[in-house]
Amino acid sequence: MKTLLSCMIILTFVLSACSDSDGKTEIDIQQTSFNFAKEGGSEMLYILTQADITVRSSETWCQVTVQGSSQNTQQYKITVGANPLQEIRHAKLIVSAEGFEKEIPVEQEASFEEKGKYIVRENLTTRQLVDEMGLGINLGNTLDATGDWINPSSISNYETAWGSPIITKKMIEGYAKAGYSSLRIPVSWSNMMSDDYKIHPDLMDRVETILNWTLDCGMVAIINVHHENEWVKKVPTDNEAKKKFTSVWEQVCKRSKKYGDQLMFEPMNEIGYDEIWTPWGGTQNDKAKAFGYVNELNQLFVDIVRASGGNNAKRHLLMEVYNTGLEYAYDPLTKIPNDPANRIAVTMHYYTPATFAILGNGVDAGWGIGVPSWGTTEEFKELNDNMDLLKVNLVDKGIPVHCW
């Protein structure tokens, strides 16, 4: 953004200031404001006068240098460095003479787009990024909605199929203003995908639009593969499923490789193999086999992301634990993937007690009946005890934990 020097004559203020023997001396200020890009730069301020004037800045980051005068025009160079802040900054140029003072506003763009949106902070640990994520919210029932009854001609048909309105920038801004620091964007990529596993550009564009709104609000964004369990579970044993999984993440990575560390990836959602093992049935060997499949999925995911280049080479990633269960996060059979970037956090879901977190009040699911409230002394103790288990078994060992 440049000062409109070509419009100097139109923008001129002719201001009466000082008196001399001939009457009033005119002070003709050629600019009414200055607007600088986030990178900073220099602009000239021209003042036509014979008066003895001074020009100073209200802020140290905005500097004024006298450049001399020519034919009663006094020249000042206004210099601004790059804005290191994630917010617009303001200063005032104060033009003074005897009996006269005029302020000229100076504004500089925020650096957020460059610093927060596309930059990977080299010294930022995954633990620190998880801390930045703070309170998060899930953008569910939107891009992850599925159903063979949904008209596949438009992404908006899927976005509204489960009762959600079309997502707008104002909604995302509302989340940020409400205090959320992170937003999970679950996506069912198969909704709009060709037979050769190419994601429809409309879906890819829509995901990126919402991603940009999220990042522009300063929130950490998480993109995953959601409601795709039927075929994702086959990846370790089926070459075609593996080809599809690889294709999806290669496309997502290619589209997202320019974004910085405020974007995280999550490989899948709540993958388990109940047909092989459950806590209520199956041998230890069966459990090892089931856990091994999830470990294999996580490792494949990490390998695909790291091989995609760009900022993905150092992107912070989430790894799914078996069925995203808390007790499985520190199970000896859960393996942290080999990662050359060493930027992985464990993610798990915490829906305890399920009768409150999952079921509506009074709903009888067979295994439990929904309750209307939570917060007894015993329930707080259960929560604290579970968080302590995660701390002792993972966090204290250098493994960050992200919990939904």
Structure notes:
With 404 residues, the chain is of the alpha/beta class. It has 2 domains: 5-110, Immunoglobulins (Immunoglobulin-like, Sandwich); 113-349, Alpha-Beta Barrel (TIM Barrel), CATH 3.20.20. The chain contains 12 helices and 16 strands. The protein has helices at 8-11, 112-117, 126-133, 155-159, 169-177, 201-216, 229-232, 239-256, 284-307, 326-329, 354-357, 377-393, and strands spanning 13-20, 23-29, 34-36, 41-48, 54-57, 62-70, 73-80, 89-97, 100-108, 136-138, 182-187, 220-225, 263-266, 317-320, 344-348, 401-403. The strands form 4 sheets. It has a 5-stranded antiparallel β-sheet with strand order 1-2-4-7-6, with no helix packed on it. Strands 3-9-8-5 form a 4-stranded mixed β-sheet, with no helix packed on it. Strand 8 and strand 9 (100-108) form a beta hairpin. It is elongated, with a radius of gyration of 29 Å.
How do the helices and strands line up, and which of them pair or pack?
Layout: H1 8-11, E1 13-20, E2 23-29, E3 34-36, E4 41-48, E5 54-57, E6 62-70, E7 73-80, E8 89-97, E9 100-108, H2 112-117, H3 126-133, E10 136-138, H4 155-159, H5 169-177, E11 182-187, H6 201-216, E12 220-225, H7 229-232, H8 239-256, E13 263-266, H9 284-307, E14 317-320, H10 326-329, E15 344-348, H11 354-357, H12 377-393, E16 401-403
Helix pairs in contact: 8-9
